[in-house]
Amino acid sequence: MDFILNSMRKIDNDQAKEYAFGTEQSLVEHLAICFINPKDFEKLNLVPSLHLKISNEERSIIVKVEKDENVHESTIVMPVSIWSNRLSLVKNNELLYKNIVVNVEATRDPVTKFKEIMEELRG
């Protein structure tokens, strides 16, 4: 199912704070997450034990998912982080981190690990 992905800064989901004062586990707990409207949660047949695989034309990640009534339907909101940055795109020499069309699906696969993303970036 297609959604629109937007990344944003959230007080409780701050990458700089987690990286400076947290642990690798707290990075995952607070940043490897997305928020969707409760109606979309139901449409996707999600339950708390499932994760969400989010893919664009170049990459995919797996994150935890939470309901948030403040998120518009057919929209995903992610905190600015290494996870959301993996879905950013460059088009016409511009970095896109808002209004990115993504495909989502429920999965039991584990959340994409921080070290896995770092290894991929290092090439």
Question: What's this entry about, in short?
Answer:
By secondary structure, this protein is an alpha+beta fold. Helix content is about 30%, strand content about 35%. Strands 1-5-2-4-3-8 form a six-stranded mixed β-barrel.
Describe the fold and architecture.
The protein is an alpha+beta fold and 123 residues long. The chain has one domain (2-122): Barwin-like endoglucanases (Beta Barrel), CATH 2.40.40. The chain is built from five helices and eight strands. The strands form two sheets. A six-stranded mixed β-barrel has the order 1-5-2-4-3-8. A two-stranded antiparallel sheet has the order 6-7. The longest helix is centred in the last third of the chain and has 9 residues, at 114-122. 28% of the residues are buried.
What is the number of E strands?
8
Mean pLDDT: 89
Q: What is the domain total for the residues?
A: 1
| Assigned CATH architecture | Beta Barrel
Structural class: alpha+beta
Low-confidence runs (pLDDT<50, min 5 residues)?
A: none
Query: What is the strand content?
Result: 25-35%
- Largest sheet properties: 6 strands, mixed, barrel
Task: Write a concise keyword list for the protein shown above.
123 residues; alpha+beta; Barwin-like endoglucanases; six-stranded mixed beta barrel; two-stranded antiparallel sheet; globular
